[in-house]
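User: I'm putting together a teaching handout on how multi-component assemblies are represented. Below are the sequence lines for each component of a complex, exactly as they appear in our records. Could you produce the 3D structure of the whole assembly as structure tokens, so the students can see both representations side by side? Please keep the chain order the same as the input.
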Amino acid sequence: MSFAINLLMALLVAPLMAGVVRKFVRGLVHSRQGPPLAQPFHDLTKLLGKEDLRTSISFLMNYAPTIVLAAMLAAALLTPMGLPAPINAHGDLVLFVYMLALAAIATIMISVSAVGPYSMANSAAEIIGHFTVEPVMVICLLAAALKAASPTMWDLATWNADNAGSLSMVVAAIALFLALIAQVGKLPFDAPEADTDIMDGPIAALSGPRLAQFQLASLMKQIIYASILAAVFIPWGLGYIFPLNVLVHILKVCVLVVLMGLVDVVNPRLRSEQVMWFFVFVIVLALAALGLAIAGL
Amino acid sequence: MTAQELGASLQKKFGGRVLESRAPLAGKLYVTVDPQSVVEIAAHLKNELGCRFVITAGTDRRRQRGKFLITHFFAHDPDKIYLALHAEVDENDPRIPSITNVVPAANWAEREARDMVGVVPEGHPDPRRLVLADDWPEDLYPLRWDVEHGTKPPSADCAVPRRPAPEGTIVVPVGPFFPSLEEPAYFRLFVEDDRVVDADYRGFYNHRGIEKMGCSVLTYNQIPFIAERICGICGLVHSTCYCQAAEQAAGIKIPERAEYIRTIMLELERIQSHLLWLGIAGHIIGFDTVLMQTWRMREPLMWLCERMTGNRKTYGTNVVGGVRRDINPDSYEDVIRVISEIEREWKALYDAIPGDRALMGRLRGTGILPKELAVERCAVGPTARGSGVEIDVRVDHPYAAYDRVKVNKCVYDGCDNLARVLVRLDETLDSISIIHQALPDMPDGPILAEIEEDLPAGREACSGVEAPRGEVFHWLLTGEENRPERWRARAPTYANLQVVPPMITGSDVAHVPISIGSFDPCFSCTDRMEVIDAASGQIRLCSVDDLTADS
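Assistant: Of course. Below is the structure of the complete assembly, with chains in the same order as your input.
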């Protein structure tokens, strides 16, 4: 059951949520009628049918988008979404962190191996971008694992549900939420808004089916991160009976995604060096959560 | 100092090297000098008198005089004078000393005169081709009278040499068609560790040959309509500027009501142009909410102009002698209602911008254009005013009804992208105030002066207009067959674009798009799409319908 739910969340709900944000959040703030809800699906299917132009014949370049997508799909199956995750085993937390790292490394590889001055000039900025959310996520999960004294994702969620309101977990939740907000402005597939700066190292180098894979992975990533925040750090509703627990989870994820979309739409795209202080603040906050957890708070 | 006094002082200082000095109208001085002394006189004008270089015009006068005429235009803004420095060059030896070494702002203008009429500026520091296409033959100069309009020479092989990249840098191309500019312009940024070390520009890809058309196939009264199409957003400034020059040459005084109508329409155009620009600036920095909201605010103004003139933009109201359409007194209220609504929303925007930290982060301290550089390279309009240069044609060289309304020079000395945003924000409110002043003051009466006789050949006149992007300047030398012998039009981007390479040097690559965008550049206002079949070499030009179907 949870296998089907997680797969649906990753492959269906993720693009749909992007459609909701584009039509309702962005459309409303822009005073316009947004694109159809199904637009992300149309975009993906269109890209899948397009010619695959390559700027590089390197092995990394050819397979990295697939690696990113596969890693994200695996991470999705390791994420509890209302129910225990389909892959719910002792130590799955470590595997989850590895999957995030694998996706990040593959993304960096795309921008590094791309032949083209835009990608080259900005691979550094791209790498910095990847060292914002992932470390915060890992530190927060580590703090939760310390508190729950378990390396298993579901144990973290249930421990939090039973011991609501511990200081370290509240701080961790705030840090993770801020990290997600920082991430959302960098959603690289936001085509109408990302076309103008000289940036987006990996995106400029990808096209057609490869771009579609990368985009789907990015959409899934958003849902996975929101799910971790919702399931582990805001764990209310876990104990409800099926399907209520899953519905509550989806609702929480929706609220988070809409909030992120709202932050995105009322801000210009910032250069990574301009938000450095923000990243530093968030990482310090996450470390504080870890320290508090070690101190037993 | 009046124009006459300036002419007399030049004659006194340079003696026999100033061959002739005429000041037929207040604020206009035409001086003919010996070609060998242009450098000295130009240096005197710039360094001692503080004149601002405007443009160079090359004219083929072999038919009349057996000579080429090279004219450097300067403006002495504090004394409200436009000055033309004519120098005649022998047709058999078309060379003239280059003034670019003493007046750096003349760099493009002299190269263009060389490309178009073939007078070589000797000692020019960068003598590469500027305007002509890379495959245009070497010895064919389009603005010479014996080259017919529409000449299509066979392709030649004489590509413009590219400037080599400095050691240790990579070249980041911005263009030839860059998404944030959406026009053909090719900047080559020489980049070292995300920092721009130097830059080179190649443009003029869509040169439309409008000046040639004006001097060879159109008549005086047809030119305003093609002039208005020089810019797709602020076209009225060009038709106004041309008409003013033509009226001056013909000695016509246009009715006062026509002057007021021009003033009001020019200010309405400025408001919509600034609204459009602010939206695009928002888009460039990834803030599409600004784009969507400013364009929503702009739309009622476009509809208003359509009700008043029949067109959303490119109004087509100017003719030599006045305007074609009156502003109906019944529609005064309509105008006030629309601009008051914009004023209300604009003030809300005005209050919100300085409080937006994220927006400030992208604008403040980026795209620095120091005042010295702006003065040295003769930047114009909001670009110059954002760097503390107090120039505004509406005040410095009043035209239409601007001497009867209060115009503020909106000047900021921040020298950055933010300062240029603030200048335009202030100017929009100022434009609204100008319309509020002009509308009730507008006298009744005719809107078009009667023109009885033909315009005699050999007269000249020049005029400036403050466009939303800066100073527009037109010069007219009347000719036979009811058309000018030479019509020179300079758009403000021509002056401002030359400032870009020195300005972006030292800045982060990421700030380049918004820094160029902050000038509100306008490269050719022409887009066309051709499909070239690589196998057969066949070219198909896409029509509007094709593009709509494909979009």
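A couple of points students might notice: Chain B has a mean pLDDT of 91. The CA atoms of residues 84 and 463 of chain B lie 11 Å apart.
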